[in-house]
Amino acid sequence: MEKQGLIDLSELKPRNYDTFFLKRNPFPGIGVPSDTIPFTVDREDIKKRFTETIAELQENETGLITVLIGDYGSGKSHLLKLFKQSVNTYLLSQNPGILAVYVKSPGEDFGEFFSQFIDDIGRSLLTAYSQEIFKEYFISHRSESLKHFSTDELKAILIENKYEIGDMIKKSRYLDLFNAIKNEKFSDIGSNDLVYAFLSLSHPDLSTRAWKWFLMDKIDKKDYREHLLIESPIDNEKIAYVVFKNLTRLLNLLKIQSLVILVDELEKIGSLSPSQKRIDYQEQLRTLIDDYPKNLCLFFAIAPTQWDELTKTSTAFIRRLAGTWARLDDFKKEDTKELIETYLHFSRVKNYNSQKVREKFPDCEPSLCPFTKDSIDSIQQESDGRVSRVLMLCRKSLEYLYDHQEKYKSINSSLIKDLQNGR
């Protein structure tokens, strides 16, 4: 029976790029970088500055600030996410460790900043740290832990060390257990609410509500007091800052010595209205910088025009950023070529072979196939060397080639021209 009026999705067939020695179209469909960044091209000065900053943080715990200035599409977000991935891959698991957090926008006040900070750390990581605390407590305080369980069966499971953390916490007298761990491990954390929310992440029935508290979502007050032992929500920027400071202390107790916070779209704080709100928020960020002269590195990203506008007014925050900036220039042709080659490299089929490529695509360098040299000139000209434009144009060109193989055997300047003219 025909399904009148519907689009037939019964036999979906995505484009198969094997004929171009590719497993897929490697170029992103939107101008926003993915959270997993395997590489970057050029930017050697910026990468050197980053590694030197992290080395100083690791060796001397020195906090430093860097402002990345680049036009929209120049790859600022890409770099910040690469920095995050590099730090967390190599340094997070060390003892003491360094944690990098990407804040996609500073928002309109520190409450929004904190919410995005927490969201990027992620529920799974904080829950894993929370569960590790319970595991350590059960092991190091085995005899004392027994009193938190009501049946001999559960006590036997604990003694035999054969249990799942969440399940055991759920079956325990968890309020007493939470208090025991708080007094043992977190007695010098000023925010009891933070401690209880952190521990509640390990309880299967409380975890979602605890995570909502971290994200500043609304929760019924009864749920706070009766189940989470939490007295109040994080409902303004001042409380958010207090919780942030206590969280950094809690992370220190978890052997995370330092933080690298990567803040994108700094220009957002320059567009806040009224102006007093803009000034107040800059003062909050200034306070953050002054409160953490050690163990915190900050990277900000902003567009040039907005940077010029932001620095017209000499606030205390702007003075803290003086002399810390680094500029991201648009790509030159050689950089664009390398960028395209690198994306292609990571999506090559297993049977990729230079000789086979030359035989099938004689007008292409094997590393660029199915792009010709003259197509790189056209892409550079059309994109002005903006990374996001290069990637979008490459994706569309590859799609266009696939759909017009009767006319084109490779991506050349004529194809780029037809694509841009909508032919």
Keywords summarizing the entry:
423 residues, Rossmann fold, 3 domains, 52% helix, globular
Task: Explain the overall architecture.
With 423 residues, the chain is an alpha/beta fold. The chain folds into three domains: 59-122 and 239-328, Rossmann fold (3-Layer(aba) Sandwich); 125-228, no CATH class; 331-421, no CATH class. 52% of the residues lie in helices and 8% in strands. It contains 20 helices and five strands. It has helices spanning 44-60, 76-90, 110-121, 123-140, 142-145, 152-160, 165-170, 174-185, 192-200, 207-214, 221-228, 237-253, 275-291, 304-310, 316-321, 333-345, 354-360, 373-383, 387-403, 413-421; strands spanning 65-70, 97-103, 256-263, 296-302, 325-328. The chain has a five-stranded parallel β-sheet, with helices on both faces. Strand 3, helix 13 and strand 4 form a beta-alpha-beta unit. Helix 3 runs parallel beside helix 12 (237-253) and helix 9 packs across helix 10. The longest helix is centred in the N-terminal third of the chain and has 18 residues, at 123-140. The two termini are 38 Å apart. The mean pLDDT is 90.
Estimate nothing, just give the exact number of structural domains: 3
- Strands side by side in the biggest sheet: 2-3-4-1-5
How would a crystallographer describe the biggest sheet?
Answer: 5 strands, parallel
What is the arithmetic mean of pLDDT?
Answer: 90
- Kindly report the CATH topology of the largest domain: Rossmann fold
Radius of gyration: 27 Å
| Termini separation | 38 Å
Approximately how much beta-strand content do the residues carry? 5-15%
Please identify, by name, the CATH architecture of the largest domain: 3-Layer(aba) Sandwich
- The CATH homologous superfamily of the largest domain is called P-loop containing nucleotide triphosphate hydrolases
Order of secondary-structure elements? HEHEHHHHHHHHHHEHEHHEHHHHH
Helix-strand category: alpha/beta
Poorly predicted residue ranges? none
Total strand segments: 5
User: What is the overall silhouette?
Assistant: globular
Question: Helix segment count?
Answer: 20
For this structure, what is the CATH class of the largest domain?
Alpha Beta
**Helix percentage:** 40-55%
